[in-house]
Structures are given as C-alpha cells and as structure tokens.
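Notes from hallway chat w/ T.B., transcribed later so I don't forget. T.B. wanted the structure written out for a chain they're using in a teaching module, and asked if we could keep both sequence and structure tokens in one place. Agreed to drop them here.
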Amino acid sequence: MTTVLLTGATGLIGSNIAAQLVAGGSKVRALVRPSSDAAPLQEMGVEIVRGDITEREDVLPAVDGAEVVVHSAAVLGGATQTVDEHHAVNVRGTANLYDAAEAAHVRRIVTLSTTTFFDVRDAPLSEDSPLDPSPSDDPYTVTKLAAYKDAMARVERGCDICVVISGGAYGPSPLPERSMVAPSFNARICAAILGQVSENLAFPIPWVYCDDVAAAAVAAIDHGRPGERYLAFGQVGDVGSMPFFCNRAAEIAGVSHRVNAISTDRLDDPEMASRFGPSLIALAKRKFPEPWFVADRTRERLDYHPISLDEGLRRTIPWLAREGFLPERFATLP
C-alpha cells in the first residue's frame, strides 16, 4: 500500500484526488489547516494531519513516512490578490513541502500548476511550450511561476517532480461547500442558471471535469516522468470563454438566461479590475492561437481521456441541485 501525502485536500481538485487514491488502495494522509472541516475526508478513510503548509515545522512530520507527495494546495487568482498571502503559500509553502519531501526521500512529487505563465501567443499550448518571456505581473502568476521554476531547478538536481496543469475545473466534490468558494466555476454555473450574472470576460479556458484532473494527477504518480508537464484539460473542442461556459450550462439546464461577453474596449476601466482582478484582465487582453492546446503526451503517457463539457455539466448540474445550490427541479435535466 502506497502512502501518499496530499495537500489542498479540501479543495475541489484535491478532494477528488483523495477519493480516487483511497478507491485505488492508497493510504492517504492530508495536511489540513486547523480551521478546515475535514470530516468528509476522514469519513472516506483519509488520515488528517493538522498544520499549515507555510510553517516548516508542520510540513516535516506530515511528509515523514510518505512515499509520494501530491501538491494541490495554492492561493488562487481572484478579484482581490494579496502579494504576501500568495507568496506565503504558493512560494514559501511549496518550498517547505519540496524541502521536506527531499529530506524524507519520497519517490515522486506530483504538483498541480497553471497555464498563466506559458507562452501561447504564436502556437498552441503543449507539454513543451516555453515560458512566457513577459508574463503578467499579478501576484498569482508571479508566485506560481516562481514555484514552477523552483520545481524545475530541483529536478535538475535529481528530485523527481512532475507537473499537472489543470484547466478550468468544475464538478462534484466530497466537500460541496468548499467547491463553491470563489473563484469557483461551480458557483458560476449556478449564477448562470439562476440569471444572476449578465456579462463576463471573454478569453479561452480549457474547461475540464474535476474528476478528470484528479485522474491525471493520480496517473502521474506511476506513469509521469521527472520534469515533464501534463495538460489536464477537457476536450479541445470545448475550449471557450466564461460566457460560453455559462451559456452552455444554461442551455443544458433548460433556462433562457444568457451571459454576454465584455468588449475589449472596456478592459482598462478601473471598475473591470475591481470586479475581476488583475489575472483575468491580463488574460482577456491577450491573443490566443487556434487550437488553444495540443496534449498528445498527456493522453499517451497518462492514458488520459477526459469527458466532454456537455457530459460534465450534465453530471454537475443535478449534483448542485441535490446539494441545495440550485432549485430541486434541476436535479432532473430536460
């Protein structure tokens, strides 16, 4: 039985990773902050270690005895971003985890990352895309890029780290309330269906069902290779903007409300920055290739076959209704 230390286990992707690992026979240990509700994880058989990734003395004992580390914890981009908070978790916390993992001689680290600092101006994003020579300077991008560079430097020194990059993940979670915390795409589904949002930024997002991201992370434990990146996205034809995503959810739910795309001439309005935050405004100003990504290595190396956006939404919308986030009538789709 493999012992896996998992960070970010109360999050949408992390909780699905935990469920898949337990189902596959692994012994799962989760580093969870003292204030977090971990009861659903305990009920599925996860060992809970209370502590904070930003505290080195909390991380060392959590890693001790683990054979594998899966790192899903992060402070995400959002309307409000604090440099110190992002640096504490995404840079210092990640370094604490890597240091502890190296000291404990774990055989592999699988770390979750983001697309925002790779160059997709002239060619589709792939597992070999170069770093963006002039990435956005928002706290999320800056700190996730620093953590990625740290990981690659450690790989050069012999550490076994591979990277799974998630798309825009949505779907059911063992911790329903946590799956709705901003910048939750589950919450966007509900807002679209309930007619609570009228417009949003338009830039391509590779939508992906959260259980598929978890499957990629779990597969990378045994089939990934040091230093390689894997793109845990949905299907190429399902890449689309936030309005596209919201409107597809509304269509599947059988409601008439639609979300409009915000025009590019409004992106420099200070009100836009306060609503959406610097990370998303920077993305909305960029140009992207067509197709947006190519993930041949991920499919072949990890035997990765994500479901379609429509199928993911048809699974997610009834779940949201059963959990009380949508009216009961949406528990059965037209």
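Follow-up for T.B.: The chain is about 40% helix and 15% strand. Might be a good example for the class.
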